[in-house]
Amino acid sequence: MRVERTRLDGLLVLVPEVHADERGFFSRTFDDRTAAEAGIDPRSFVQDSQSRSRQGVVRGLHGRGGTGEAKLVRCARGAVLDVVVDARPGSPTFGHWVSHRLDDVEMRHLFIPAGFLHGHQTLTAEADVCYRIDAEHAPEDDLAVHHLDPELAVVWPEPITVVSERDRAAGSWAHLVSRLGG
Ligand SMILES: Cc1cn([C@H]2C[C@H](O)[C@@H](COP(=O)(O)OP(=O)(O)O[C@H]3O[C@@H](C)C(=O)[C@@H](O)[C@H]3O)O2)c(=O)[nH]c1=O
Prior knowledge:
Number of strands: 13
Mean pLDDT: 97
Number of helices: 3
Bound molecules: dtdp-4-keto-L-rhamnose
Number of domains: 1
Shape: globular
Distance between the termini: 35 Å
Strand order of the largest sheet: 1-2-10-7-12-5
CATH superfamily: Jelly Rolls
CATH class: Mainly Beta
C-alpha cells in the first residue's frame, strides 16, 4: 500500500494494490504497518461504519467539534467524489478544499485527520462508503456546513438528488469560522 500526501497537510491518500484475476479482485483494505509508517495510530479506531447512497446524493459537509475525529474513508462499491475541507484555524490552507474520486476499481482510501470537514457525492447508481473512525459517535459534537456554501464553493459534479434534512439545514462556513475563531 502506497501513501500519497495532498496539498492539505495531514490529509493522506492510501493507494492499495488491486490484484485482479478472472474471479474478480483482491485488495487490502487496511494495513497496520503502512498506517503506522504514515503516522496513523492503527489502534485508534473505535467504530467501523458503512453508508449506501443513490446517484447524486450528497452527504456532508460534516466535522466534529472539540478534539475532532480522524477517519479512514473508502468506497467499497460504486464511486463517489469525496470532498475534504481544512477547518483547522491557523492552518495555511484553512478554508481550502480538495476532492478525490474514491471507487471500487482503484480502491483508494483517504485518511482525514481531526479538524477537517468531510462530504461526498455518489457518482454511480449506488455507492457504499466505509469509514473507520477514532471516536464514538456523539451527535452533540457534530459540526456541519452547508454543501452549497458560496464561500467554500465546492463543485459537485452531478445534479444533486437527495440531501438529508440535517444537511439542508446546515449553517454557513462563515458561521463555523466565527465559532472556531478562525
Ligand atoms: C454518523 C453516524 C450516524 N448514526 C445514525 C444517526 C442517524 O440516525 C443515521 C444517519 O446519520 P447521518 O445522517 O448523520 O449520516 P451521514 O450523513 O451519512 O453522516 C456521515 O456523513 C459523512 C459525510 C461523514 O463524514 C461521516 O462521518 C458521517 O458524518 O445514522 C449512527 O448511529 N452512528 C454514526 O456514527
